[in-house]
Amino acid sequence: MAIMEKESVIQVRNLTARYGDEVILDNISFDVTDGEVFVILGGSGCGKSTLLKHMTGLLAPSSGSVRIDGIDISSCDDSTLHEILKKIGILFQSSALLGSMTVAENIALPVGEYSLLPKSSVDLLVHMKLGMVDLVGFENYFPSELSGGMKKRAGLARALVLNPRILFLDEPTAGLDPVISSEIDDLILQINKKTGTTIVIVTHDLDTIFSVAGRIIMLDKNTRGIIAEGDPAFIKEHSPDPSVRRFFSRKAKITAS
Q1: Which of 4, 32, 45, 104 gives the lowest tally of CB atoms within 10 Å of its CB?
Q2: What is the C-alpha separation between 88 and 197, in angstroms, rounded?
């Protein structure tokens, strides 16, 4: 009996990204399949965050395309783009919580933008998402009153509030100690397992890569392209590219005893 291949929910084709005259990414192509945890990695300045911005519609490519559910997000009309954006959630590297709003108000923001739910339903939805990230009881706290790990969890709850089909995470463990980072990694896996959400992560954190990634692509600053793709454990041991081997031979975070 033939095994059915999973559907591609994101298709990046021949994408070139520029800032002015500087080419950051040159003619790259790859797919992200339904329900996988897909990691974009590479050294500083290789274009990881730039690629994420193109995949979420924040930047338009100089050439090529990004398709979500078959729709080119850089050329579709505004109403179609609005419907596509309802299918995705984004956790920014800084968490991007508004300091003048409580945790609950921050999490509710996308609901107000993309739905007409009554306040009672919004409150229930916020409570449910806080439960998913273990922050029940912190609804009325302000971001300044939260630890770094709690801010990441609150940002994750906001990204999840509309039950997105695709979740984009930009450096979800950056700036966190090893124990908190491990907790965030475990939470990512739980969300993927329980909801089937496709998760795309940008990171250079080896612990996160080996903990959560089902498949990776590695970007390279010099070639402006993809120099490795596949299972990270296999690539670490078998890549013929010395720069890939150097990346994976770095020391991971050391958990304090």
Answers
A1: 4
A2: 10
SS3 32: strand
Domain ranges across the chain: 9-87+203-249
What per-residue confidence (pLDDT) applies to 253? 52
Distances (CA, A) of 107 to 24, 120, 213, 238, 253: 33, 14, 26, 43, 30
Tokens 């930009």, residue? 170
Gap between the Cα atoms of 11 and 218, Å rounded: 17
Structure tokens at 150: 């709690």
Count H helices and E strands in the chain, helices first: 9, 10
- What is the structure's pLDDT at 86? 87
Residues 195-254 pLDDT 10s? 999 999 999 899 999 999 999 999 999 999 999 999 999 999 999 999 999 899 876 554
* Beta-bridge partner residues of 31: 11
Domain 9-87+203-249 CATH assignment equals 3.30.70.360: no
The Cα–Cα gap between 178 and 48 comes to: 22
Length of the chain counted residue by residue: 257
Structure confidence by residue, pLDDT tens digits, 121-176 = 989 999 999 999 999 999 999 999 999 999 999 999 999 998 999 999 999 998 88
Q: How far apart are CA 9 and CA 145, in angstroms?
A: 38
